[in-house]
Specification:
This protein has 327 residues and is mainly alpha-helical. Helix content is 71%, strand content 6%. A two-stranded antiparallel sheet has the order 1-2.
Length: 327
């Protein structure tokens, strides 16, 4: 009876859209789109995770809940033709504006970020180093009773991220099963703070392969690759987000400590000053296979600017967290 009343209440697409969780004012909508822009920008950079940005911005658990709102009952309603009723159960408004920001960032900033990473690597990584360092501090404060189990969980996360970001990219198969697996793994990493989906694609030897397909998506072979890859992403996203959501509900403190450790371990990759030990040229671009972190070799204006960007990145996150807490 109640379900029938709800169906009558939802008469048009506008009702469906506004029946779902999401921003309630124009200001909240703009803020959520900006957060999506930040996540999308991070997702196109091998080494930086969109999940990290979501955690910094305070929408990580909301994101998991929104993804988990897409469930079997929703799919069944879609198959029965109850489209409006099905979508009214999904966090449609939240996902719509967040994905809008992510999509805009990926389409408009991918080339800019690619340019900055290749031409102003030290300055770009310096800003992200400050952002991630501050996020470790901010998120770490939310963990209660650090001594004991949370500390062990933190060390486990840190150790895992430290070794994963140090892996060397390898050559892998180009069959559809491995493309599907690559999508599955990449999206799981993308929603984990500290682990970059783009970087794991590099490790799996599929970053250039997938981005190459995206440049010409309407060629039949490329379209097939994109569909298989996206299918892996969808399966991974819907499955892994449920695991994370369960962990947050069951062991919130330990999970938060583990995610903080992941961010701390990923600092190995984000350290701005590096020396390439081995690389390869692919289609005119140089990809690093093996590198080591070094200290700055000389004190100059560029070093001061890099240090300034680290400080700016750190302060921005701390101020945003303070404003969010006051609100």
């Amino acid at each position: 009876m109640l379900e029938n009343m709800n169906n009558k209440r939802i008469m048009n697409w506008k009702d469906v859209f506004f029946a779902t969780p999401g921003p309630k004012t124009a200001k909240e909508t703009i803020i959520l789109i900006i957060k999506g822009l930040c996540m999308g920008t991070a997702d196109v950079i091998p080494g930086v995770s969109g999940g990290t940005i979501a955690l910094i911005m305070g929408i990580y658990e909301d994101l998991l809940l929104a993804i988990n709102s897409i469930d079997i009952s929703m799919v069944k309603k879609l198959l029965r033709g109850n489209i409006k009723d099905a979508l009214s159960k999904v966090h449609l408004r939240f996902l719509f504006f967040l994905l809008m920001g992510i999509g805009i960032a990926i389409l408009s900033l991918a080339r800019i970020m690619n340019y900055l990473i290749h031409n102003q690597a030290v300055l770009t990584w310096s800003l992200f180093f400050g952002l991630i360092a501050a996020s470790i501090f901010v998120v770490g404060k939310k963990v209660k009773n650090w001594p004991g189990s949370p500390a062990i969980s933190f060390l486990a996360g840190g150790t895992a991220a430290w070794f994963i970001v140090g892996l060397i990219p390898v050559s892998t198969p180009e069959e559809f099963w491995f493309i599907f697996l690559s999508g599955f793994i990449a999206i799981c990493a993308m929603i984990l703070p500290g682990l970059s989906g783009a970087f794991l694609l590099l490790i799996l030897g599929k970053y250039e392969f997938i981005t190459g397909a995206l440049k010409n998506p309407f060629i039949f072979n490329n379209l097939a690759i994109i569909i298989v890859f996206c299918s892996g992403c969808v399966v991974g996203l819907l499955g892994f987000s449920r695991i994370l959501n369960y962990l947050f509900k069951k062991w919130h403190t330990l999970t938060l400590a583990f995610l903080t450790g992941l961010m701390a371990g990923s600092m190995r990759k984000i350290w701005p000053w590096k020396e390439s030990l081995e690389g390869v040229m692919i289609r005119g671009k140089y990809y690093v296979l093996r590198e080591q972190n070094i200290l700055p070799k000389e004190f100059n204006a560029k070093l001061l600017l890099a240090i300034g960007l680290i400080i700016i990145g750190f302060v921005v996150v701390v101020v945003l967290e303070q404003l969010s807490r006051n609100k």
